[in-house]
Write a structure and sequence with these properties.
alpha/beta, ten-stranded mixed beta sheet, 22% helix
Length: 433
């Protein structure tokens, strides 16, 4: 954080943090594993990060060793009247079920269970690659201020192949049970008891109020007619660190490459004497863990970043948010643009890429009409147009030990940086782009 702040100052950015500094100090909570998670059936162990892995839920998901019977829950489409944790309503058939001695395997991944005692809760995934990726684990408890885990913990993702391996002992398969599930009416449920004994654990410790720093700097707009228009550029600068076995998850491409591109872009602007007409805020943020005292969220809280400097929250009309991630490596041959269906932003970055001789690909997203006609006046921060940029295929190594410095391709970083720099240069000075 100190290094990034020093570079912000060197490249002419003004402090955008609290108390006239570049820093927005926060305290973060998270759950850190201290033992390799365990899942076995009738004494036969499954392999962690090949057959199963913990689910990165937004509520505290941890558990000492538990043992119970594996039961499979099939459900028709569930209908809810509420969606909050305390206000969610469940079909009567599910509320009345007693799984206190059971570990529950759900056939439908959009099915939900009350926060009631179970020996484990397992969701299926057809994509084994999902199991490889690690993420921050929440320590947020429904019983706050006590740090108590959800009563259905541990919550695991299990591959369909691993589930079939377990269910074979009961003479059934995932596909067969799903066929039976399809006959269920809305809000109806069916429970299959397998007679299989499951043991599981998700052991770790709560890290509470760990100090962390977001780094924020800005270039003030130089045109009095445009300086209240705000562009925010964001990149995460931290990584997951060491796991419970001492394996390093550095996040070199996922995080560090984007900060490097941001700083090199600022260096080149400073050297060229570029001054935007609109105000541009640059944020290098802490993404691992969850802010203490705040509802858990995985996306960066841009509104909090903007409010770090006194008066900023009400002084600007957000025009665009630009998220940078995974700019230095990826199996693809193009820069991926995720603009939320926002044609104006997507087309701007595509034109900039074309001038830099860089191929681009749009992510499949819903079409959005509003910014074809502008859409930037008096919008709430959460409604402002946004675009996410990463190299195609970069996500393949996010949250894995394979995201290393050795995997970085300087050519891809340069292509990403030139494209982003040109697009932001245009955004910072032009009204119609």
């Amino acid at each position: 954080a100190d290094y990034i702040a020093a570079k912000f100052k060197e490249y002419g950015l003004q402090p955008g943090g609290k108390k006239s500094t570049y820093f927005f100090d926060v305290k973060r909570d998270f759950f850190r594993l201290t033992q390799t998670p365990q899942l076995s059936f009738n004494g036969q162990p499954l392999v962690y990060r090949r057959d199963f892995a913990e689910m990165p839920t937004n509520l505290f998901n941890g558990s000492d060793p538990k043992t119970g019977e594996l039961v499979v829950l099939g459900a028709g489409e569930q209908v809810f009247a509420g969606t909050s944790f305390t206000g969610q309503q469940f079909p009567r058939q599910i509320v009345n079920l007693d799984f206190s001695n059971d570990a529950v395997l759900l056939l439908r991944n959009n099915a939900f269970l009350p926060n009631s005692e179970r020996k484990g809760t397992f969701y299926l995934t057809a994509d084994p690659e999902v199991i490889r990726h690690r993420d921050s684990l929440s320590a947020y408890s429904p019983n706050a201020p006590r740090y108590d885990p959800m009563r259905g913990s541990p919550f695991f993702l299990v591959t369909e192949a691993a589930a079939d391996k377990m269910l074979a002992l009961a003479g059934v398969s995932v596909a067969e049970l799903r066929r039976q599930q399809e006959t269920l009416a809305p809000d109806d449920v069916k429970v299959w008891r397998t007679g299989i004994t499951v043991s599981d654990s998700l052991v770790g410790e709560v890290q509470h109020k760990i100090p962390a720093r977001h780094v924020i700097g800005y270039l003030p707009g130089t045109d009095t007619n445009l300086d209240d228009k705000l562009i925010v550029v964001l990149a995460q600068y931290d990584g997951l660190g060491l796991d419970e076995n001492g394996v390093l998850y550095s996040g070199t491409n996922e995080s560090a490459s984007s900060v490097a591109v941001m700083l090199e872009m600022l260096r080149s602007w400073h050297e060229a004497g570029y001054q935007p007409k609109k105000t541009i805020i640059f944020v290098a943020y802490v993404g691992e863990g969850f802010d203490y005292g705040q509802a858990p969220r995985r996306a960066p809280d841009v509104e909090r970043f903007i409010s770090g400097k006194f008066g900023f929250a009400t002084a600007f009309t957000p025009e665009a948010f630009v998220y940078l991630s995974g700019l230095g490596a990826g199996s693809g041959k193009s820069l991926m643009l995720g603009a939320g269906g926002n044609l104006r932003l997507a087309q701007l970055f595509e034109r900039a890429a074309e001038q830099m001789d860089v191929k681009t690909t749009r992510k499949n997203e819903d079409f959005s009409l509003d910014v074809i006609f502008g859409g930037t006046a008096n919008v709430a921060t959460s409604d402002a147009p946004s675009i996410t940029l990463n190299w195609a295929g970069a996500e393949d190594t996010f949250g894995t030990p394979d995201d290393t410095p050795e995997a970085i391709d300087p050519v891809k970083m340069e292509k990403s940086g030139r494209t982003i720099s040109l697009a932001l240069l245009i955004m910072g000075r032009e009204v119609n782009y």
